[in-house]
Amino acid sequence: MTTPARANQEAGYARYTYRLRVSSTAEHGLLAEWGRCRWVWNQCVAESRAAHKVGEKCGPARLDKMLTGWRSLQRWLRSGASVTQQQTIRDFAKSRTKAQKDIRARLSVRRRTGMPKFKKKGEADPTLNYTRRGFRLKDGYLHLAGGLALTVVWSRDLPADPTSVRVYQDPLGHWHWHCSFVVPAQAETLPETGRAIGIDWGVKEIGTSTSDEHDLPHPQHGRKAQAKLARYDRMMARRKPPKGQKASKGYREAKRLRARAHRKVARQRQDTARKWAKRVVTDHDAIAVEDFRPKFLAKSTMARKAADAAIGATKRALVEMGRKHGRDVRLVHPAYTTMDCGGCGARAKHRLPLSERIYTCTACSVSRPRDKNSAHVVLVRAGLAPGGAKGVRPGRPQGGQAA
């Protein structure tokens, strides 16, 4: 069982994002292209809903045939590139499939099963996807189908030829446009250390490991920015327009400031997770990770603190970093990790309450912090020697599953 990472990482691909310098003429062309793609998306939604009412299927093949008819009838649609419009149909089909899976998981009884929504003008953020035949790189410029040439700010080199590119507009106004290239992921091997580590996830400390120097304390980025976020919330509440009226300039500015503050917090969490993951991966050859799903915490009293901890994003960063550098990352099921002893493997008869932070084994009398014991249990279940955290080379895997 693999980690719930992004599709690009699962398929052995990675994204490289760059800023774009776009002239007024090029921006006008990009927005016109986005208008055509948005129209195609809305037509896909309408056709899919009509087919669903009569019990028919409306897949990508049928929509492709419809696109041919639409382009033959609509001159303004035919003036745009067919690559982005065809990719819009692919994105629509993928979005509908994902929505259907989510609804089945929730056992929903909605009538329109997994139907994406219409994209309204002025509300949906412009996003254009180009496959390999729809773009090319030449002399540092990004040439798109339709005769658009964009200047890329090459902050770093691409490791390989990209297979696709996404051009999108920043909704917050920082460097209006960006491009994101998809390239084959390349492993960057690190020197062997002969060490192994087990990691348990929590809320008080995001990551508790078998090595004290690699624990990840809760940075509380969201709590530190709470005063600023509350201020922007009050600004939006004061300037909120009546129902049916257009939002004022002040309301839009307050909304943009609030979004910027939220994005800063998200980037701080991402930066903390990546730096910690790189340190763990650099110092250990084998990493046993608790396959923890923090979704249930959203319904508990620890919801806000758990959301600020971003356990899922931190776990994903660790697994992706381990895969990037060729480390042995093993995911361990979290069942009974708080009840088992990391020393002798004995299981407690009763579940420990959250208030009890010290685990004491009744069989071997081992006493250690609760999360530290869980980290040792994760390490043992992954088939790694418990002494691996102290410098012993990890042994053959037994119960852990490769990420």
Describe this structure in words.
The chain has about 400 residues and is α+β, with helices and mostly antiparallel strands. It folds into two domains: about 180 residues, no CATH class; about 210 residues, no CATH class. Helices cover about 40% and strands about 20% of the residues. It contains eleven helices and 15 strands. The strands form three sheets. It has a seven-stranded antiparallel sheet. Strands 10-9-8-11-12-15 form a six-stranded mixed sheet, sandwiched between helices. A two-stranded antiparallel ribbon has the order 13-14. A hairpin with a 6-residue loop joins strand 9 and strand 10. Helix 3 packs antiparallel against helix 5, helix 7 packs antiparallel against helix 8 and helix 8 crosses helix 10. The longest helix is centred in the middle third of the chain and has 35 residues. The chain is globular and about 80 Å long. The N and C termini lie close together (about 5 Å). The N terminus is likely disordered. Keywords: DNA recombination, DNA-binding, Transposition. In the C-terminal section; belongs to the transposase 35 family. It holds the Pfam family Cas12f1-like_TNB. This is Putative transposase. One of its GO terms (molecular function) is DNA binding.
